[in-house]
């Protein structure tokens, strides 16, 4: 399908950048210089574009057949955007799940059912997980060596999945890639099962 947006990042030496669709709920779209429908001036940050959205081999949104919008089209587009009233942002289901999870950890720790060291370990794992996503996003932008996906999944399964989700939303990173998303949600289930086992009478390490 075709969509419209503005170029918010552009690395001219590498010939690629990212478009933010006019719908702010949509993820950024990757754009390469060769994906313009016809030759034209070099892209600059802030220019308005129309493009065809596809999924590439890495499962990310990519622009093809991109073309510049005229000033009149851009003004018309901006007018429509400003005419839309501000909406109260609703909590997403994952935000509710994360909040409930963190509250549960706090209650379990205060009641003595979860050791303080375990809670500290989970919090540290979340910090590392968020940092790893940030590093991977930067590496993807700069064409450097990426953080292995297995590392991200291991951190999620050890309890770093809340920070992983926050990083995915913050950096618009790995929010659509498959099968990464399925494995990520599987790590959440695995972590909850491990936590349930740790708190259960079957945990021989508690005896």
Give a written overview of the molecule.
The structure is a single chain. By secondary structure, the chain is an alpha+beta fold. The protein is 49% helix and 17% strand. It is built from five helices and five strands. The protein has a five-stranded antiparallel beta sheet, with no helix packed on it. The protein is elongated and about 65 Å long. It starts with a strand and ends in an 8-residue tail after the last helix.
Secondary structure elements and pairings:
Blueprint: E1 2-11, E2 16-21, E3 29-32, E4 48-55, E5 61-68, H1 71-83, H2 93-110, H3 116-142, H4 149-171, H5 180-199
Antiparallel strand pairs: 1-2, 1-4, 2-3, 4-5
Helix pairs in contact: 3-4, 4-5
What tags apply to this protein structure?
single chain; 207 residues; alpha+beta; 5-stranded antiparallel sheet
């Amino acid at each position: 399908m075709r969509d419209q947006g503005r170029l918010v990042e552009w690395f001219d030496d590498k010939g690629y950048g990212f478009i933010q669709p006019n719908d702010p709920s949509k993820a950024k779209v990757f754009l390469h210089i060769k994906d313009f429908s016809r030759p034209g001036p070099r892209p600059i940050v802030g220019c308005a574009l129309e493009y065809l959205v596809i999924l590439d081999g890495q499962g990310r949104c990519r622009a093809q057949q991109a073309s510049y919008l005229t000033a009149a089209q851009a003004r018309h587009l901006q007018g429509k955007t400003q005419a839309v009233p501000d909406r109260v942002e609703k909590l997403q289901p994952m935000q509710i799940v994360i909040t409930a999870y963190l509250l549960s950890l706090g209650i379990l720790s205060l009641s003595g059912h979860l050791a303080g060291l375990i809670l500290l370990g989970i919090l540290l794992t979340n910090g590392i997980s968020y940092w790893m996503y940030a590093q991977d996003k930067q590496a993807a932008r700069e064409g450097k060596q990426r953080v292995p996906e297995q590392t991200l999944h291991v951190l999620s399964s050890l309890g770093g999945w809340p920070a992983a989700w926050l990083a995915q939303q913050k950096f618009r990173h790995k929010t659509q890639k498959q099968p990464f998303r399925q494995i990520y949600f599987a790590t959440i289930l695995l972590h909850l099962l491990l936590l349930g086992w740790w708190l259960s009478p079957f945990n021989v390490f508690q005896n």
